[in-house]
Amino acid sequence: MTQTDPAPLPADLLPADCPVPSVPVLGSRKWAWRIIRCLEDGPRRFSELRVPLAGITAKVLAESLRSMEQDGVLVRTEFDENPPRVEYALTPLGRTLLGPMDAMCAWSRENLAGLLAARAEHERGH
Amino acid sequence: MTQTDPAPLPADLLPADCPVPSVPVLGSRKWAWRIIRCLEDGPRRFSELRVPLAGITAKVLAESLRSMEQDGVLVRTEFDENPPRVEYALTPLGRTLLGPMDAMCAWSRENLAGLLAARAEHERGH
DNA sequence: CTGTATCCTGAAAGATACTG
DNA sequence: CAGTATCTTTCAGGATACAG
Prior knowledge:
Two copies of one chain form a homodimer.
Chain A: H1 13-17, H2 32-38, E1 44-45, H3 46-50, H4 58-70, E2 74-79, E3 85-90, H5 92-95, H6 98-125
Antiparallel strand pairs in A: 1-3, 2-3
Chain B binds a DNA duplex through helix 3.
């Protein structure tokens, strides 16, 4: 930073192209990615989400949904009925995530097998 | 899990219903995203990486690099010199990540301010 | 049905000291 | 220079029980 390096990697290299260390909303929240996918085709109820998100607990699902609601990528709508009914839907902002996600999903589909193979190879060798 | 799950898949990698639950390599590793960015323009030495990755410890950087090497997205090259010199570079596979990452970075640039505002709003009001 | 309230675990990260 | 070795911390996630 205050040093005089011959050919250093500038400390501001990252902010120029990548403002954040990881992807907001999707980083550091295990289920966020899949939750968004499950809402892609329309609003879903709490219990509806639990089916495709096999294994998720109510607690974690509720936490994830609340967090994502605070980020503005989905909205929670509570209907005054009995039994209670709550729906979650992507916001317009949330929908803008789908494009970038598609790119990442395509990459994963194409390279997941190779990744697993590479890791297995390394584990055998050492 | 105490459940009797008939198909125990790598829960962090393989989807139940959605394409990909999270991004391999980039998910669940805080610094991976930025490390790849730092290698985008060419090989870098260990100490060179520590500059733009301000705050990362040697331990975490080494761990992250090892992990990513095992995934096959980067290679570690050790030169037999004194003082020791080691370079890290993206593999062709690693380079294929840059495209999808660009899409995500663009999204972040465009929406980060809005996200922070939305969260701040939620924390203030409710 | 849609959650909360607790308690617990585990993996990644950070702090610090040391080494070939 | 390029790491390793420990130790501690942190916090998302999971198990379970309970509630409006």
